[in-house]
Automatic annotation (TrEMBL):
InterPro entries: RNaseH-like_sf, RNaseH_sf. It comes from Araneus ventricosus (Orbweaver spider). GO terms for molecular function: nucleic acid binding. SUPFAM superfamilies: Ribonuclease H-like (SSF53098). This is Uncharacterized protein.
Length: 217
């Protein structure tokens, strides 16, 4: 703490910006940018200023204390023309109610469309082919996992009887000696495409098993 004894040290409580005011007569004035310190508004209280000043004192090189060292507080915005007036207007403006406008910002438009999409997703349209009654549910099961897999293959067209030879589709023979394509299998067992895409999948599986063509699907 011996550094403090070599400094002119005084804080006026009524003027927060006056800190370590130098004497009127100085032999020399030097500037060091290594000691620059930012002081936010909350440090304008005298006690805060005192603590900040002591931190600066501890950063002064010992060699610099051979001479008497004085400080001058230089506020950045005090006394600048129009600054105080701008601060007052800004505070008054922040208290005013928000202005209503018919124009929407991009973020607002995005939020509106997102809300509509969310609502449509949570309330899906009522179609006879939409088995789930709300998002998160799988299609209604019509039987075993193997039966579900067979129906999925039949809907996509990638059934077991399908083979690719020289990039051409080739199907194994149906019991009736015809190529066992998905369309032929459905027609051969006396079913219809509606059964494949509606909730009548269980009956379609029974027809496939009855005609012995499940191994082709």
């Amino acid at each position: 703490m011996w550094k403090r004894g070599l400094l002119d040290f005084n804080i006026e409580s009524c003027i927060p910006f006056s800190c370590l005011t130098p004497n009127t007569s100085l032999d020399r004035v030097s500037f060091s940018n290594q000691l620059l310190t930012s002081a936010p508004k909350h440090t304008q209280h005298p006690e805060m200023m005192r603590q900040l000043s002591l931190e600066l004192i501890n950063n002064i090189p010992t060699q610099a204390l051979k001479n008497r060292v004085c400080f001058q507080w230089i506020p950045s915005h005090v006394g600048v023309f129009g600054n105080e007036e701008a601060d007052v207007l800004a505070k008054e403006g922040s208290a005013l109610p928000s202005a209503t406008s018919s124009e929407l910002f991009t973020s607002e438009i995005y939020s509106i469309h997102k809300a509509k999409a969310n609502s449509a997703w949570k309330n899906p349209p009522t179609h006879d082919w939409y088995a789930g009654n709300r998002p998160g549910l799988s299609l209604l099961s019509v039987g075993t996992r193997s039966a579900e897999t067979s129906l999925a293959r039949l809907r996509s067209g990638h059934i077991k009887s399908l083979k690719f030879i020289d990039k051409e589709k080739n199907f194994s023979s149906c019991p009736c000696s015809c190529p066992a394509s998905p369309a032929h299998i459905i027609d051969c067992i006396g079913a219809s495409a509606r059964q494949l895409w509606s909730g009548e999948g269980k009956g379609l599986v029974e027809l496939l098993e009855r005609h012995g063509v499940m191994d082709l699907v």
